[in-house]
Amino acid sequence: MDLPVDGTLFQEAYFVDDLERVAQAWSSSFGAGPFVVAPHHRCDRFDYRGSDTEADVSYAFGYLDDVMIQFIVQHDDAPSIYRDMYPDGPADGAGFHHIGILVSDFEAEFERLEAAGFVCATRLYADGVDAAYFDTRHVTGGFTEIHGTPAHIVATFDRWRESHRRHVPGGPAIVPRN
Questions:
Q1: Is the pLDDT of residue 1 over 70?
Q2: Is this prediction's pTM over 0.85?
Q3: In this structure, what CATH number is given to the domain that contains residue 75?
Q4: 82 falls within a domain
């Protein structure tokens, strides 16, 4: 089964047990980053499989070349798309979780994935952006996130990518979010 999404692959994401440790490892090993951290992120609207219960998660975002790398840590045991894949946490401290695709027409792509038989596990609205995670594990080995492209978030991603281009080997793996 093909993933019928009209968009641009921009992100690969990993569920981890320690944001700082993993960000430092990726920075040292691959030159990724610098990473910005969103601690205890909260959404304006949230739905996980019919429930508005939102897990307590923190994120780190950085780039490796033109690909955004995201690390996610969950601070509680609430049901989530992360616990769907890793009920006991990620083995060895980190595991692949999802790919992210930027889409210009969020609603059309959401409907296209549903029509193709994929189940939306989480849909959210946060920071002025629509996002949804479809359970595509049987196709991709993980979830697939579709992510809207309002101008302010595209500009933020561009700043983070530019920060990566200026990143000096041995520089800080994590920088303040601004």
A1: no
A2: yes
A3: 3.10.180.10
A4: yes
